[in-house]
Amino acid sequence: MYRDEETLEPREYYCKLPDGIEEKTVFLLDPMLATGGSACDALTALKKRGVKKIKFMAIIAAPAGIEKVASEHPDVAVYVSTLDRCLNEHGYILPGLGDAGDRLYGTK
Question: How many angstroms separate the CA atoms of 89 and 50, rounded?
């Protein structure tokens, strides 16, 4: 998943899951849980493919993202190491870390 920078909507661009995943416990990892849109769409995609046991983990999160995931997927345990205060008008966590993709792939 990635987030469209203009609409802030999540987009799926690649999904390849191992055979038998519906019988496994799946850990969905995201460095930052901001709006919760991408996380919710990824959780929905896993559930559509038969996954029933999912745990979501993030390094840093905004309250809005946690609330969205908890509301849309109350059956999924959410674990975060740090809770920041809010999102800005662009949907970025404040004070946050900067864009995780840019940091990981050096795209900016």
Answer: 35
Q: Are 34 and 91 in contact (CB under 8 A)?
A: yes
**Domain map of the chain by residue range?**
2-105
pLDDT of residue 92: 77
The predicted model scores a pTM of 0.80
Residue 71: which pLDDT band, with cuts at 50, 70 and 90? very high
Report how far Cα 103 is from the mean position of its chain's Cα atoms. Answer: 17
The verdict on whether 84 is a catalytic residue reads no
Q: What is the mean pLDDT of the chain?
A: 86
Tell me the backbone φ, ψ of residue 105, rounded to 5 degrees. -105, 0
Res. 32: pLDDT tops 90 = no
- 29 token code pair: 């990892």
Q: Is 102 a catalytic residue?
A: yes
Which position among 4, 7, 49, 103 bears the catalytic label? Answer: 7
Q: What is the assigned CATH class of domain 2-105?
A: alpha beta
From 4, 11, 102, 103, the catalytic residue: 102
